[in-house]
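Protocol step 4 of 6: structure prediction from sequence.
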Amino acid sequence: MDKQNKMLEMNFSEIPETITDARIDGQIMLFDNFGRFMDPELRKLAEGYCFPTHTDITIIILCTKGETRIKVNLKEESVQQNNVLIILPGCIFEINYISQDFEGAVMLLDSNVMLLNEDAVLSMSLRRYLSSHHNMLVSSDNIDYFKNLYCMIKHALQEKENVFRSQIVSKFCQILVYSACHIFLQSHFCFLDFSF
């Protein structure tokens, strides 16, 4: 069966380990090209998802320059400078375009890394909200905040001798997702009550 007749799958086993040195196998992978052109191997991998692709993992894209256009559940999203895009597990996406000057970061996360299940009602509310609000434009201060969080996660991942590495990474990922949800809510003027 050829690619066009088969749904592609995005999961950790589909991503070559050589593409990143910041990862915990089966849990989290990070890619970035801040201040430089995208690595040709990474561009080739991303452009390979130009067909509808089902994802089993959470994908977070932080754009600091350029543009990428990604269709999420049949709706095209333009991810430009100061945009953050979140694609949840179970979504269908396809990458339609990546500009030559694209700069940013991509995080691939297993749902267990974020562990947002401490409060089931809150977790379900956040998931429901993010399933229909994938893309957000944030201020330059907030994009710097997300970039700094990303760099802290990457640094923690690279400290392979730290026995608490997984726990530290998980907490940083929780901070990132909760912060993104807060900014999403502010930017869409949705006054939902998340105080439980």
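Step 5 (inspection) to follow. The first strand starts at residue 8 and ends at 10.
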